[in-house]
Design brief:
- Helix content is 85%, strand content 0%.
- With 312 residues, it is mainly α.
- The protein folds into two domains: 152 residues, no CATH class; 114 residues.
- α5 packs antiparallel against α6, α6 crosses α11 and α10 packs antiparallel against α11.
- The longest helix is centred in the middle third of the chain and has 50 residues.
- The radius of gyration is 30 Å and the shape is flat.
- The two termini are 60 Å apart.
- The relative contact order is 0.05.
Amino acid sequence: MSRELYLVGAFAALSGACFVYFVAQLGRWRSPEISRQLAALRGFSGPQDWGRTKRERLERLSVLLRGVGERVAGHRHDSDTVRATLAQAGFLHPDSVLIYWGARLGLAMVLMGLTFVMVPLFGGGAPSALVGSIWGAAVGWVAPAFYVGRKVKERQLEISRALPDALDMLVVCVEAGLGLNQALVRVAEEVDRVSPVLSEQLVMVNLEIRAGTGREEALRRLADRTGVPEVSSLVSMLIQTDRFGTSVAQTLRVQSNSLRTKRRQRAEEAAAKTAIKLVFPLVLFIFPALFVVILGPATITIFDTLSGLGLE
């Protein structure tokens, strides 16, 4: 009975793989006339570039994931929240939400099928294969969300660390006579060596302003794309400065001093927590070793003495 169940599971996994391949072939289908023209162009262009082949494969994969994601996204009501989270992680493609849901569902199905097939090969029974497939599906569903969340935290930490220095350079540029837009471009060029993420965001702000977006709207989009509280506070102050006509340089200087104070406070807080964090390795690793080194010889001596007296 268990052997028949394994055969059924293997047949189901093979059927799923064939279905995925069939859908992938549908995604890359084109008319015969277009195929002949592309073949002729490849003949004139020489050997096919490996980079272009990789891009084509990624495009086909994105088409497949987009098709799968449309099935999931149609039943979800948190698309705006997911889009904002993906933007904070650096995924700004228009179809990033669909690809995200397609990746979660596709990875869950793949891992579920692999674990259901591989567990019996290593000696597991039908219950183990069922539990393993459930765990594989859960891991495949959660892994993309975990990756996106970690990406968001890394980018926000990088922006938070580079923002005070960027504000100092922005103050210097503004006091030197540059406008805010030109100062943003200059700071983006200089801060690229320290924080490519912050440089990219500043460049995007300048491009949006050049494209006709209002400065206030462009700055609000900057705060939404980063999700950093310090950037949101800076954007609010710049918007108020632009509305009331106050000094931009003075506003930036105050914000820079505030960010440096917060960074120093965070460093002091981390230093104060060090003593508490050291308690666990001391108790678990260092104290037992000290007890063995200090009390070990005395224990051996006492044991030998009691053995000589016959009191062991």
